[in-house]
Amino acid sequence: MQELAISTQNSALGLTEPAAIHRQLKCGIEMAVLPLPHRPVVTLEFRFLTGYVHEPPEKLGLNRLVEQTITKGTTRRTGRELSDAFDAKGIRWSSWAGREATSFLITCLPEFLDSAMELQAEFLTTPTFPQDALRVTIENSITEISHLSDDPQELSAKLFARQIYGPVLGRHVLGESETISTITQEDIHSHWRGHYGAGRMQVSAAGPIDPVSLENRLNALYSEFGNSVPAGRDRFPFEFQPITSHHAKDLEQEQIGIGFPGASLDDPLHYTQRVVIGLLAGGMSSRLFTEVREKQGLVYWVSAWTEHPRGIGMVFLGASTTPERCEKTFETLLREVDRLGEDVTQDELQRVITGIVARTETRGDITRARCSELADHLFHYGKIIPRDELLARIRAVTLENVRTYLQRFQRNRLSVLTLGPKELRLEHD
To answer: Among the CATH numbers 3.30.830.10, 1.10.10.10, 2.60.120.10, 3.30.200.20, which is that of 21-222?
Structure first.
């Protein structure tokens, strides 16, 4: 067995951390490593370039079923035996399925990394997808889908995604009950064979780890795993359409969603956008919380956020209010965005920038967060951007940048959704 060499050298206080290493491996894997010799644990994220956008339209929910059942048995072990093997070494493992990617993560003590990687490779390359496990997972998924109707916030998010992004990018990770129920064991195997392989893998690692040894180990474990030709970075068609819709439901509260185009992650104004979102919803001193909830008492909850399918940027405003206050809440949300271009102060701007930098630096104390940061860079940029460079761009945002951003991404074309007892009456209706 080829052993994985681990660096255990401690770094002195104040020593600049090593630069991240980015390589395309012989087996087809794209690898990024951030050596952090002083950390007590190692984290690896195995991200596959496949998500629910790659599902056949008649098999929605298929990608998540693969993610949920791939650990339920291998050609060597049952699902229980696999779990026991991870637990015996104290290895934490998790996974998630998303719009354009699916990830599997492991975190462990450095001395158990080789064992963790072998177990990870075992279920990724030799899964059996037992029929009993698939049946239970399908039943659980159908139950989860049915429960969405009892959660107004989740239901409105599902409906809004379809409205914003369309029939492919706007799919829901769970799929639909009528498609989930038709998925067979062969469908699972077929999706795995077609979308899982070294050429569709991005592996990111952070912690006390030697990049050369990691490269050698990955090449050994995955040299015969599917197609080794690196997959392209798919960008799915998207054309924003300003639509207003209402979904009647007998509720005490009214859910409001507003969406409009914003900066994509590769747009220079993305960093200004992060600050704008911080001004709106970056904490209890943010505009939406203080003005809409605390001062005017219009909402039960309110927020602003962004989403970034590859090559796309969308800005969202959301709130839950009473039916009687629906119109006023809608108008106030948009007014608070526009007001940023009129009266935001340098002190307010600096407070938000300081908060973003502090949260980023604090999050950086967690090895798993540094690993996920690398994985996001590989996925969205195809390269690693040093953290100092990212934070410098945040720190450089000015009041003029905020005004430029608001001028470029105006709110004159909106997608609006309401869920509840009352239809929103807009001025132009």
So the answer is: 3.30.830.10
